[in-house]
Amino acid sequence: MEYLVRHRTTYRYLQDVSYSCHLAHLRLRETPSQHVFNSAVTLDPEPASRANRPDYFGNDCEWFTLDQPHALLEVLAESRVRVNPPQAHDARLSESWETVRGRLEAADDAESRDAVQFIFDSPLTAFSSDVAAYAIKSFPPGQKLLSGALDLMKRIHQDFRYDTTVTDATTPVDRVFEIRAGVCQDLAHVGIAAMRSLGLAARYVSGYLLTQPPPGMPRMLGADASHAWFSVWAPPLGWIDLDPTNNVAVGEGHVTVAYGRDYGDVSPLNGIILGGHDHVIEVGVDVIPVTGA
């Protein structure tokens, strides 16, 4: 399926910003199931400087600075992408979770050494609550890793309420675990923390959802905004993406932007400003199927 993706972010400042420096994760990422035809970021006003380069995780990033006074900043990312249906995986073919944990502890091959960086705490997934006790219910002895991860995804979907009013971009996973509510970002962090609590590798994935579902299919939560899910390392099947907000394995309606340890690594826009005082942020996302493609 081919899509046009538009992500417009507008900052309106009460007072002029005299200088600002920003980092954007808005260009789509190439993946085994996703091909990016083009991905561009337009800025208004024009920046004094800008640079495009990959970050540590291989995500395509845009750095830019503005050195003229401005009370409004508009960032428009536009992309054309083809998302292929992901390969179907038989969860029974994944290794047991204990075997995978042992491979990560040894880290004696290139694949496990790459995955091992995703077993450690990160700023938004570090926990002091008993996340491991919650996680282990999906991973009895000998459980195949992917089977356990699918069960964990289902339980998070059932146990945590989707609520846009109770968290923000800085909410730690302990708070989400306490209130059992949050948005897609928070539910992804719960899944990641749960997997890592057992010594397993999980990473955060940012992206988008198809705005309008196919006829007869329900509209998914998180459409018309940036979306997020988590990905688990399940050898020999590789990395498998799971969406706990909607209790589905990620499919061709999901468009990938970037991945990292947690939201902080791949937030769509962040930066530092001088001046501005209070401000309002407006965000609009459209994922539009390209007919006849």
Average the pLDDT over all residues and give the rounded result: 93
Beta-strand residue fraction: 35-45%
**SS elements, strand count:** 14
For this structure, what is the CATH class of the largest domain? Alpha Beta
- From N to C, what is the helix and strand string? EEEEEHHHHEHEHEEEEEHEE
What is the number of helical segments per DSSP (H or I, 4+ residues)? 7
CA radius of gyration is: 19 Å
Query: How helical, in percent, are the residues?
Result: 10-25%
Overall tally of domains: 2
| Silhouette | globular
Gap from first CA to last CA = 7 Å
CATH topology of the largest domain: C8orf32 fold
Proper CATH architecture of the largest domain? Roll
Could you name the ranges where pLDDT drops below 50 across 5 or more consecutive residues? none
**Biggest sheet layout:** 7 strands, antiparallel
**Helix/sheet category:** alpha+beta
Overview of the structural elements:
By secondary structure, the chain is an alpha+beta fold. The protein folds into 2 domains: 2-84 and 267-289, Immunoglobulin-like (Sandwich); 91-266, C8orf32 fold (Roll). It is built from 7 helices and 14 strands. It has helices spanning 97-106, 110-115, 131-136, 145-159, 173-179, 184-197, 263-266; strands at 2-24, 34-44, 49-54, 60-66, 70-83, 161-162, 181-182, 202-209, 227-233, 239-243, 248-249, 254-260, 269-275, 279-289. Strands 1, 2, 3, 4, 5, 13 and 14 form a 7-stranded antiparallel beta sheet that branches. Strands 11-10-9-8-12 form a 5-stranded antiparallel beta sheet. Strand 9 and strand 10 (239-243) form a beta hairpin. The longest helix has 15 residues, at 145-159. The chain starts with a strand and ends with a strand. The model has no long low-confidence stretch (mean pLDDT 93).
